[in-house]
């Protein structure tokens, strides 16, 4: 890939992760209005860790993508219903693409 392709992919992933962060924050705000079970609190906490992972991926693709991907896996183990919605797969796909971007660009001197 050329340097320009890395930059375009990086900005597409940043925009997509920004949308994921905004969407999940809106979901979090909606959930905090009612009394929460311990399981819901655990899932919201892990989702928060995933959001931090996406934010970190803007600077450090591998670390942030790994945190976001791992948090999705943990949520899927705790609540397998998450896997029924195909829209939720945007989360792990974006995290995986951050990791792929890191792997592709680490041997070149492509910086933002």
Describe this protein with a few key phrases.
112 residues; mainly alpha; 4 helices
Structure description:
This protein is mainly alpha-helical and 112 residues long. It has one domain. It has helices spanning 3-31, 38-57, 61-78, 90-105. The longest helix has 29 residues, at 3-31.
Summing up helix and strand content along with how strands pair, one would put the structural category as mainly alpha
Instruction: Output mean pLDDT.
Output: 87
Give the SSE order as H and E letters: HHHH
Shape: elongated
Characterize the main sheet: none
* Beta-strand content: under 5%
Number of strands: 0
- Rg is 15 Å
- Low-confidence segments, given as residue ranges, are none
Fraction in helix? over 70%
Through-space gap between termini: 15 Å
* Whole-number count of domains: 1
Number of helices, counting only DSSP H or I runs of 4 residues or more: 4
List the topology elements:
Elements: H1 3-31, H2 38-57, H3 61-78, H4 90-105
Summarize the structure.
This protein has 112 residues and is mainly alpha-helical. It has one domain (13-105).
